[in-house]
Amino acid sequence: MNVQEFLTGRRVAYDAISHRATYGSQRLARMLHVPGRDVAKTVLLRVDRGSTYLVCVLPATKTVDLQKVSAALGGCQAELATEVEIMRHCPDCESGTLPPFGSQYGMKTLVEQSLVYDNEIVFEGNSHREAIRMRYQDFQAIEQPLVASFAVRLPS
Length: 156
Description:
Layout: H1 3-9, E1 14-18, H2 25-32, E2 40-47, E3 52-59, E4 62-64, H3 66-72, E5 78-80, H4 83-89, E6 108-112, E7 120-124, E8 130-135, H5 136-143, E9 146-148, E10 151-153
Parallel strand pairs: 3-6, 6-9
Antiparallel strand pairs: 1-8, 2-3, 2-5, 4-10, 7-8
């Protein structure tokens, strides 16, 4: 899935931002001069020993708490997926990138509760040189993610 084509096809307003390659959501925030809390990073989780995969979307300033994810999903086991698993599920993306649209890859999307209060979110597109800025409300409308509190602040 090409993120820009997907959003254009859904008639969603967005800004595509080209930039030098960045690896990591905090670096993306610095490159774009955007607060880390406004950059949404995506993490792929393996649920119940790989029977299901889940795309988690959270602020760059936070990290996934697997116990909170488990509780939000009714007690299932959740683990971080590997880079190989990400590449297998998202073959149209550059290695290490994962768009926040799990539905387009046959997966559910879980969004950190704190993001729902943002007017806009910024996230990586299909490569480490492309960012997308769009209204959170539009993201919510087209993705219809599960929303829960599952992230904790990264240590300073």
